[in-house]
C-alpha cells in the first residue's frame, strides 16, 4: 500500500475532495478505494463503525474519520512540507472556526438548495446566500482565507467547489455576479494542481444531483 | 483583567462548563461575564458576530468561539501545564473524533429528551440511549476516555454532566442502572476540583429545563 495510506472515498463527496487536496498538497501517495456510502461495505463498517461514512483515511491500518480531523492529522503527520494550519494559536483557532462554520452552517442549505423543492428549497436558498455573503465578507481582499497561503479554510470550502454549479443551477443564482471576490478566489485555488486533481467534474455532479433529487422525492 | 482572559458564558451552558474546566485545569485566572444567550448583548454580538452564542473566550482582547476550539486554543497557549490532548497524532485524532461525535450526535437528542414531548421525545430518548451506549462502549474499562489521564473527551462529555439528571428525569431512564461504567467515570471526574467548580447544580438545571420546556411549548 503506497506510503501505507489509503482513502475510502466516493467521487462526489465534498468531504473526500478536501482530504484528497490535503494529501496532494503534502505529496502523500495513497491507494484510493471508491466506496459508495449508500452501500455500507464491510470495509466501511469496519473502518468507521460509528458514522459509516466516507471519507475514511487509513494510515498504517488505523482509520481516521471526519474530513476536518483528517486534515489536522495529515498536517501533523506530514508536518515537514506545506503547513495547512497556521502555527499561531489564535490564527489556528480562527481557521478552525471558519472550517467549522462551513460544516455547521453552510453544509445543510448547500445540499437542500438542490436536494429539496418548494418552500424548503426557498428557505435553503435564502440561508445559503447569507452564508455565501458571510464567506465573501470574511475573505474580503485577502488572497486566501488565511492570508497569502492556501490553507485549511481554503481546502474546507473548495471541497464544495464541484457542487457550486449544482447549487447555482437549482438555486437560480450566480456566484460570479453575487459573490465576485469569492469567485476570483475559486479561480486562484483552481490554479493549484492539488485542487484540480481532487475535484469532480461539475456537470457530472449536476447529473448526480438530479439522481439524488429523484431519490429524495424532490423531482 | 485577570491574565487578560475573560469568558462570556451563561451558567447552564454545557459548552461553557467545558471551557471553565479547561481553564481551571490549566490554572488560568479569568474574568467571568454572565451573558444570557437569549439576550443578544452588544458585547456578545461584537465578540461572536457569526453565531452570537456563548461561550466566548476573550484573550488579550481577541475572541475565540466554539467550545471545542477554545479547548484546543487553551491547550496550545497554556501548553506548559497539563496537556488536554495527547501528543500522538493518531490519539489526538481519536480524541477529536469523540468530542466531535458528542457535539454532532449526542447534543441534539440530549436536549430533545427534556425539551420536547410526545413522539419527538420518544425518538430523542431512543437516540440518546444509543449514544450513551456507544459512549459506554468506547469508555470500556478505561479510567478516562483517553486512558489514564483526564483529558479532551472527558471535558467534552462532562460539560453535559449537569444536564444528566434532567435527561434522566424527563427521559425516564437511569444512567447508573443502564450505563454503569459511564456512571463510575462521572464519579471519578467529579473528584477533580476543575470539574466541581465548573458544573452547575443539577436541580437548578432541572428548574431551568422546566422553564425552557414552557418556552418551547413542551409543557
Automatic annotation (TrEMBL), chains A, B:
Principal subcellular localization: cytoplasm
Ranges of residues in domain GST N-terminal: 3-82
Record-linked CDD domains: GST_C_Tau (cd03185), GST_N_Tau (cd03058)
Domain GST C-terminal, first and last residues per copy: 88-216
Keywords: Cytoplasm, Detoxification, Transferase
Cross-referenced InterPro entries: Glutathione-S-Trfase_C-like, Glutathione-S-Trfase_C_sf, Glutathione_S-Trfase, Glutathione_S-Trfase_N, GST_C_Tau, Omega/Tau-like, Thioredoxin-like_sf
Subcellular location: Cytoplasm, Cytosol
E.C. code: 2.5.1.18
Transmembrane regions listed in the UniProt entry: none
Top-level lineage group: Eukaryota
GO CC terms: cytosol
One Gene Ontology term of the molecular function aspect: glutathione transferase activity
Keyword Ligase on entry: no
GO biological process: toxin catabolic process
Reactions catalysed: RX + glutathione = an S-substituted glutathione + a halide anion + H(+)
Function (record text): Is involved in the conjugation of reduced glutathione to a wide number of exogenous and endogenous hydrophobic electrophiles.
Entry similarity comment: Belongs to the GST superfamily. Tau family.
Protein name: Glutathione S-transferase
Provenance organism: Eruca vesicaria subsp. sativa (Garden rocket)
